[in-house]
Amino acid sequence: MSAFVTPTRTLISQAQLARPLGRTAYWTVFWVLIALFALAFLFPLYWMVSGGFKTPQQIIQTPPSLLPTSPAPGNFATAWRDMDLGRLILNTTLYAGGALVFQLVFDVAAAYALSKLRPVFGNGVLFAMLATLMIPTTVIVLPAYLTANDLPFTHWSLLNTPWAIWLPSVANAFNVFLLKRFFDSIPTELLAAAAIDGAGPLRTLWSVVLPMSRPILGVVSIFAVVGVWKDFLWPLLVLTDTSTQTVNVGINQLHVGVPENVFVAALAIASVPTIVFFLFFQRNIMAGLTAGAMKG
Amino acid sequence: MATINLTRAVARDLRAADPARRGGLRRKLRRNATAYLFLAGAVLCFAVFSWYPMIREVIMSFQYTNFAGDTKWVGLRNYQRVLHDPDFWSAWRTTGLFTLFALVVGYAVPFALAVVLNEIRHARSYFRLLVYLPVMMPPVAAAFLWKWFYTPDDSGLFNAALHAVGLPSVQWLQSSHTLAVLCLVLFSTWINMGGTVLVYLASLQGIPGELYEAAELDGAGLLRRVWHVTVPQTRLILSMMLLLQIVGTMQVFLEPYIITGSANDTTSVVYLIYQYAFNYDNYGSAAALGVLLLLVLIAFAGGYLWLSRRAEEE
Amino acid sequence: MRLRTASRVALATGLVLSAAACASSNSGSGGASADGKVSITVGCMPPTTQAGPRANWIADVAAFEKLNPNITVKGDDSNPCDDPATFNAKLASGKMDDVFYTYFTDGANVVASGQAADIQQYASQIHGLSDIQPALTNIYKQGGTASGDLYGIPKGNYSLGLVYSKTLFQKAGLDPNKPPTTWDEVEADAIAISKLGNGDVGYADYSAANTGGWHFTAELYSRGGTMVTPDGKSAAFDDANGLAVLQFLHKMRFTDNVMGAKQGLQYNDLLQMMASGKLGMYVGDPVTLTTIHDQYNVSYDDMAVGPMPGQAATLVGGDGYMFNKKDTPAQIQAGIKWINYEFLTSGQGLNFNYPRRAEQKEPVGLPEPDLWTGATAAADAAAMAKYANMPVANFATYVAALPSMKLLVEPPQAQALYAQGDKAMDAVLTDPNADPQKLLDTFKAAANSILANAQQ
Q1: Nearest CA-CA distance, residue A195 and chain C, Å
Q2: Is pLDDT of C376 > 50?
Q3: Among A95-104, B6-15, C120-129, C250-259, the least confident range
Q4: Which of A214, B68, B140, B207 has its C-alpha lying 20 to 30 A from C409's C-alpha?
Q5: Per UniProt, what is one Pfam family of this protein (chain B) (predicted)?
Q6: Is C22 in Cβ contact with A242 (below 8 Å)?
Q7: pLDDT (0 to 100) of residue C29
Q8: What is the pTM assigned to this prediction?
């Protein structure tokens, strides 16, 4: 049992666990936890999927049945078609991808400037950015909405365009902060060497700083994508056209009048992309998220 | 996230004023111009979508704006109106209760779970994977799912579960205000705790094993080891998560919006802002309430900073 | 400086693209071009979740454009059609569709906002305008009175009645073709149904998500009361009528014990209770039957609709179209043509193409929308009867009573008032010791503050 060869000792010592009493306690706790986790985190998902297979009468039946007695897989097709889930998922992917690109370009550039180019008032700018961390987006959602609806000077409206998601996502002080902290840790000598070789700031950023920053870029990317995928209030306000909406908003706007069983099927479909994405990239995501949070 | 450390880092940065920037004026100018070009995109986005709306929020809280676009100054009238609105106090009560429950359920449970999980030597990825699954669901889909679980009649999942163990059914969202808020907190914990558990696990793994050994040699039992080693060693992350949690739960919106739809007086403060602005066309009151919420959040963070600084000095 | 160029290009493309997007989203305004072609954007195209109506709309647009080759109709399928989250902001910034969708409750606000076009001079082009119920057209007139200029066209409406379960009436020994016509009879019948036992609930009512306040209003109207004073400045429901509404519900809930233990109900809950066969009566409109039928496969034979008890007045709600003030005269006239075609001609369009509806198994035979009076109404009813696919007799008492009832629209600031009304409704239905008068006073104070707020 290789798992037992943990090098670090934790709360309970190896010796304690090796005793018969310790072993019994360990395995009891272990199996209870296995069952508890399955019940708390897998069963709701099972209930959702099986609910999507139920007939209209079966889904309001008392008591509910564990299995769909006469499975109606057509619900999933109906949900996909009627709620236009393909488009919602595609839209969200587009917004998340765009937000990722914009944040990587603008926030990396800003963090690099603040960390390595250090202009006058640079600290003031950084402070003003970090101050927004204290101002939750929900609090300023109304003026931000009015601004997006009628941009200063130009009077353009970003409503129902991807820009309404992409540009505000750049104003992400946490990501700027993470990037700047990481860039700070890159020795100045390296940059100086690059400068002596005649590299301008952009070359230095591209060929010295960025290659060293892969881990933090990964973290920032995950934050950018997950942020867009989970956001609700902002896209609810700025994406009013059905054809432009995200998964979260679309489900909320279209649920009225959809039969319960079809709706539950729609919820199941809507959850698939991110869960599959997660299963594929779980190692990176979990490592990135913990690293990001610990850094803060 | 991590406001406290940020603030400290900023202070450090500000103090560490760049060591005399040598070089000619021209070079200096060029360096600054380049730097600001790099900054331009982000600064513009911050200006338009954060800084300007912030200022505008404060201005609007002293104005009356109607849907036809007429604007006039009304002094403190919006604030008076908000403070006299019974919904205002009810929204704070709900938000406060939510925050309180979230402290008990959403803060303590993930930590306890992480401590236990850290002792488990098998199937580690099973636990991590499962606890993180809900985090990856679109929150609106998850909220609707739970709303369905909370179905008050006996066709609902939770009531069926109660029946299975011989308990009578419960009205969940439609029973008492307290239980309705608790229902929202349970959902909120379910969908959010994956992230917190993972953060705690990471910080637990950083505790040096010798500390536990030393404590054990001193004859400390299991609980005393938790109290005297685990908690102090994770204090920084614990206190940070506490602030984040409070600041986060004070802004709860999605849960009451989707799950209860403000029934049973479960309108939260941010939901009330939404209602003022978009249901009652009352931008002034919405802005005033936003400013009030902001003041409360700043007070929280300020108090936290002050406490943590004092703790550090001791 | 490659990055500078790159980011500049990115920024510039971004701005250009978004400018283009802004332009295209407004393409309707000024959509009349030199060659006489007119293009209009029209709100409330059925969304993808309503595949049948959506296909019909698309087919109708094609047919309409064939008839009027110079007009292009572009549907806007945003859902809900009138989203409170954005309605006012869109209105204030002039971003409404050329022909935009409104609820009756929006009518007065929109006229006051100055963002809608006065269409009085085109009134003669509106099909059968004189036969549309005056109570409905007045909603879209300046000042809400017959003498004001016209700003919009009603297209659909509902009136609340009493939905009841014929099955449970039969089981309880009541006449399933004779619904109660007074609140006292409602009480007696509810008692009879609750006596059946096995969890059957005689009567149920809302108290959450603003539906409680909505039903309070309807039940107040039915007793002859009104929500606000004629000038719209203060609450007018704190009187004997308002008190009677709350006292009645409290008595039904706790003395008669015929409303079941489950409270805090909102829109779909009553429908679901009816679908499960456990509910005797609720206040609602005929279209709720189609929801119950479609979503839960309940037979139309099991349910019927009677008139609103009291029969003095009932709450009417509905929707219609208004015109963006930026519209050109050609666009307004094109919009009217489209509305005539799609919503105002018996025998065609989304609601009145009975042969098509019957063929598609859409419900035919509902007494709503109930737009017309006089000869047009009679002709439409006859056309509908031919294709009816549900037992029309189940609406007979409801239809017979409507002409003699006053049709009252919802109060100003309806949603805000309803939210407060929920609290009074919830209290009388959940607190055995609730004091209806005290609840009414609290409700009134909150309502007055809301109304004063709206005036400023």
Answers
A1: 15
A2: yes
A3: B6-15
A4: B68
A5: BPD_transp_1
A6: no
A7: 43
A8: 0.83
B23 falls in which pLDDT band (50, 70, 90)? Answer: low
With CB atoms and an 8 Å threshold, state whether B294 touches A147: no
Cα-to-chain-centroid distance, residue B89: 20
Instruction: Sketch the domain layout of chain B as residue ranges.
Output: 86-313
Across A260-268, average pLDDT: 93
Alpha helices of B61-138 — where are they, by DSSP H?
Answer: 77-84, 86-101, 109-119, 124-132
Specify the range with the lowest mean pLDDT, choosing from B17-31, B54-68, C81-95, C218-232: B17-31
Taking CB atoms and an 8 Å limit, are A9 and B209 in contact across chains? yes
Chain C neighbors of B173, CB-CB under 8 A: 264
If you search the block for the tokens 């790099």, which residue do you land on? B38
- When pLDDT is cut at 50, 70 and 90, the band that residue B220 belongs to is confident
Contact B67 C113 (CB under 8 A): yes
**pLDDT tens across C398-410, in order?**
999 988 899 898 9
**Residue found by looking up tokens 């179209």 in the block:** C321
Residues C384 and C354: beta-carbon distance below 8 Å: yes
CB atoms within 10 A of CB C401: 18
Q: What pLDDT is attached to residue C5?
A: 37
Integer Cα distance of B131 and B145 in angstroms: 17
Helix (H) or strand (E) holding B73: strand B71-73
Q: How far apart are CA B51 and CA B40, in angstroms?
A: 15
Half-sphere exposure in the Cβ direction for A67 (13 Å, CA): 2
Q: At what angle do helices A260-295 and A247-254 cross, to 10 degrees?
A: 150
| Topology of domain A83-254, CATH | MetI-like fold (1.10.3720)
d(CA A51, CA A46): 8
Q: Using one digit for the tens of pLDDT, what is the confidence trace for C130-139?
A: 999 988 999 8
Residue B146 to chain C, least CA–CA distance (Å): 16
CATH node for B86-313: 1.10.3720.10
Asked whether C167 and C302 are in contact (CB, 8 A), the reply is yes
Q: Do the Cβ atoms of A166 and A239 come closer than 8 Å?
A: no
Cis amide linkage into residue A63, ω under 30° from 0: yes
Query: What is the arithmetic mean of pLDDT over C34-51?
Result: 87
CA dihedral C7, C9, C14, C16 (to 10 degrees): 150
Largest CA distance in chain C: 89
Which residues of chain B does A66 touch, with a Cβ-Cβ cutoff of 8 Å? none
Are C246 and C423 in contact, with CB atoms under 8 Å apart?
no
Domains of chain C: 29-157+317-359 (3.40.190.10), 161-315+393-455 (3.40.190.10)
| Other residues' Cβ atoms within 10 Å of the Cβ of residue A214 | 9
pLDDT at C8 over 80: no
Cα-Cα end-to-end distance for chain C: 55
Mean per-residue pLDDT, A196-221: 86
Rounded to a whole number of angstroms, the distance from the CA of C50 to the nearest CA of chain A is 7
Q: In this predicted model, what pLDDT tens digit does every residue of B137-177 receive, in sequence order? A: 999 999 999 999 998 777 889 988 998 888 888 888 877 88
First to last CA, chain A: 36
